[in-house]
DNA sequence: GATGAATGAGGTTTCATTCAT
DNA sequence: CATGAATGAAACCTCATTCAT
């Protein structure tokens, strides 16, 4: 199931980077056109309004994330492994697609209805996978999580931060990054035994496939 | 040492809420004036440019945060207790001043030089207190932190998220919130013994004092 | 007959300099207030509107000039001497009061009716003295002037230019300046015999008296 | 070598007339748009800022004037004829292009750096041609000029005044105007013999050619 | 006298968008 | 496909001016 997303790639690529960098309201149409090597009038051949463009970006990114999470949830019974993979998925996605994820994380407020509602629904569905993993782990006596809602939010935000600073060209490999975050999350949940690194690779592969990235 | 902050309170209050809510570029001058019960021309009696207003807000908030962190660092030798208090400080600040903290966390990019540089310097000085607590704890063999820079960022982002959702009118008390985040952080750092909750109250008091809040 | 002019000297002095320097429309009220060491609200104790201020400045300067010209015309029968003195008067006034004269010369257009009309009337009355001197000289066979209107305008503009560049602190004395301009004008009018320098001193004295300047 | 000048003619034409008439600061953008039969937003298709427009006008006008002066200087050895032609050039330019020349003469102050510097440089280069003609004439014993700098300024200002009042629809022909000014200038310089009127026609032709005017 | 506070109108410039070519 | 031309609305900010204190 290919998720091409509709909009011309040049335009979407330019938009995602600019929206991530300067925010939706901080990005002008001409700026966008210039980044896409197009005149501002030509832009409108490839998109509806500026807001439609934003909505498309967010829907696309969230759908990919949700698909990946569903795949992990459907194939991983053990709550510890499942949560570790969700962490790896979230971290890898934010590391490899920092622009898209920052837009998703920061620009919901720039959407007006009904697009906002739809995006929020997707995001909630995605977070529900985290909620399930946490509650399953607590029910199984594996996790110590205090208020599970608080914990879920804390862990999600922790992982989302990656998009703000991680560079694939730096010293830290993506695998190590994912492993460290998984370890942090599991320890925070009270698991003293380590998570198996082997499983985390799966998450990285899913991310690559879902986004059409090499290897 | 009173930190009055300069700009007329009405204006600053309105600005901080709008900037937090809709972003700097998403907030218009007329909107701001209306929220401050002023004409848009009158606004300019109380501020320089819109960006000056933003810079003032950020400088003020970061200075308060930095002062509080310095106070904690100066009075708490044990790295575990120190980190727990820093977590409590960060969480309480984000819970009680969600508008200011979100502006600080999201709008650095909207600043142009030289204000940006100054704000970044303040933020770095603040994060340095976290870095010291973590490296002290690792040197003392109390923390297991993998790459300490990654850990620092992960924990900071985790705590910052509070500003996005916590409400003091909800079921969760501020003390419980701070305690849960401190527990999450210490466990993530590999401390299995619990942090003493007694100390955390100190952080709440500092926050209240530094921001001039009741109790 | 003292010509105090009404407006507080501080204000008028500041205004005249700014209007000369940046033009009427290029000068803001706050700028003016700052130059007069007053708040912009306080300005309005000393003046009506900004345009009233301009009109007052122009009326005052033109009245002084007109008085001086009348005095010269009334006391100098010979057209050559009369014109030489008018030149000296015009040049000295522009050299010693460059701000006032530039405002008079450049800002008539910034006046609206009825003030404009009044100022134009004064200016025309002043120029009439030049016209009389020239036509008297032609009638007496002393001047060769082609179209006398053209000549009058040419000579007036020639002399007015002094306000743009002459500095009393430079190498050229005021007397020399006046003498050179008088010589230029008389030669342009076809008088090959020199103008008597002694008379020109009279013009300088009149300027000083009319403007209340030392010596 | 065509000097088309860049900006859309409609806009430049409107601007030059308004700037001449009401001054740069006295001319509003909406006024300008209306005069160009454009909305104020559309104006910005054809220009950068209002100041860019002014700078373009001044650069263009000064370049034409400088070119013409260079041509005259290069082709006229005798200082008397040269000065007469420069006078004719200056007078004709001011008579035929009163708007452009008034803007050049009055609005240098409205320019900010670096445009101001550039314009001043052009103006100085132009005035240098006058300075050379005068000093050549003095060296050759043809001119009596007192302080040559004073004389240069006096003659230039005398001629510039034409833009303020001459109308090609009046009784005075352009040729007569130029001839009279040349005669005034040469007499002022102490030349009692008349300048040859034949040469002056050259100046008129150059002006027409340089500005793309008929005949 | 003097001024801080206030404002309606207007300043220049940019916005997202449309449409004829 | 692509774009230059065009625009109404709105952006931020400054204007000259008034008035209660």
UniProtKB/TrEMBL annotation, chains A, B, C, D:
SUPFAM superfamilies: Homeodomain-like, Tetracyclin repressor-like, C-terminal domain. Keywords: DNA-binding. Coiled coil: none annotated. InterPro entries: Homeodomain-like_sf, HTH-type_TetR-like_transc_reg, HTH_TetR, KstR2_TetR_C, Tet_transcr_reg_TetR-rel_C_sf. Residues 28-47 bind DNA. Pfam families: TetR_C_24, TetR_N. PANTHER family: HTH-TYPE TRANSCRIPTIONAL REGULATOR RUTR (PTHR30055), HTH-TYPE TRANSCRIPTIONAL REPRESSOR BDCR (PTHR30055:SF200). This is TetR/AcrR family transcriptional regulator. It comes from Amycolatopsis minnesotensis.
């Amino acid at each position: 199931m290919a998720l091409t997303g509709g909009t011309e790639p040049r335009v979407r690529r330019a938009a995602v980077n600019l929206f991530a960098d300067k925010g939706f309201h901080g990005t002008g149409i001409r700026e966008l056109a210039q980044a896409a090597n197009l005149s501002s009038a030509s832009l409108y051949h490839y998109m509806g309004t500026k807001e439609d463009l934003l909505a498309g970006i967010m829907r696309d990114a969230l759908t990919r994330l949700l698909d990946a999470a569903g795949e992990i949830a459907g194939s991983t019974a053990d709550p510890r492994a499942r949560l570790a993979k969700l962490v790896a998925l979230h971290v890898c996605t934010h590391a490899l697609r920092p622009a898209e994820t920052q837009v998703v994380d920061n620009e919901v407020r720039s959407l007006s209805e009904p697009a906002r509602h739809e995006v929020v629904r997707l995001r909630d569905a995605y977070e529900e996978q985290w909620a399930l993993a946490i509650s399953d782990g607590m029910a199984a006596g594996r996790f110590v999580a205090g208020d599970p809602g608080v914990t879920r939010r804390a862990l999600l935000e922790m992982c989302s931060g990656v998009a703000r600073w991680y560079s694939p060209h730096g010293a830290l490999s993506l695998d190590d990054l994912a492993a460290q975050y998984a370890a942090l999350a599991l320890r925070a949940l009270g698991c003293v035994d380590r998570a198996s690194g082997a499983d985390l690779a799966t998450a990285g592969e899913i991310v690559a496939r879902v986004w059409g990235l090499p290897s």
